Amino acid sequence: MKYAETAQRIAEYRQQISAIRKQMREAQAQVEPQEVSDYEFQTPAGPVRLSQLFGAHEQLIVIHNMGKSCPACTLWADGYNGIHQHVANRVAFVVSSPDPPEVQREFAASRGWTFPMVSHLGTTFAADMGFRGTRGWTPGVSVFQRQGERIVRVSEAVFSPGDDFCTVWHLFDLLPGGAAGWSPRFGY
Known about the structure:
This protein is α+β, with helices and mostly antiparallel strands and 188 residues long. The protein has helices at residues 3-29, 71-90, 101-111, 125-128, 167-173, and strands spanning 34-36, 40-43, 46-49, 59-64, 92-97, 117-119, 132-133, 136-137, 140-147, 150-158. Strands 1-10-9-4-5-6 form a six-stranded mixed beta sheet. It has a two-stranded antiparallel ribbon with strand order 2-3. Strands 7-8 form a two-stranded antiparallel ribbon. Helix 2 (71-90) links the parallel strand 4 (59-64) and strand 5 (92-97). It is globular.
């Protein structure tokens, strides 16, 4: 297929994706929120409750990260570092993993991460949110909202290679052959 024809077809696909995203936002606006507990997490400064993670915001994004043993979760987190200040201007943002706080702090420092992290080690948080199964941890995101004294979850998404939450995959989609079997590593 000629370049111009292919470019036109891809532009049409992008328009379809845009229309589907609009439908997803409309469906999301209709969701019945799920009430959740005020979980307690660990940080290097001591325990912190889910309700405290909101800070001055009414909404909170929690990234469910598998921890320092996962190169894909590290890839996603490297990306958050670049956008954290922009996201935090609109909504509270934190990364949660099963690693103990001291392991998180050391690994974050080695990667240059500046976003806040909490440890859900020893809690049912990840499992209750659907990010722990019989095969272990699953990466993803949950969005919470304060409703008076209540905390509710209003959305979630599971992460996987090629998803909407990591730009690397979309850049590779522009290459002939796509990612061509590429997998993230801790260093190159």
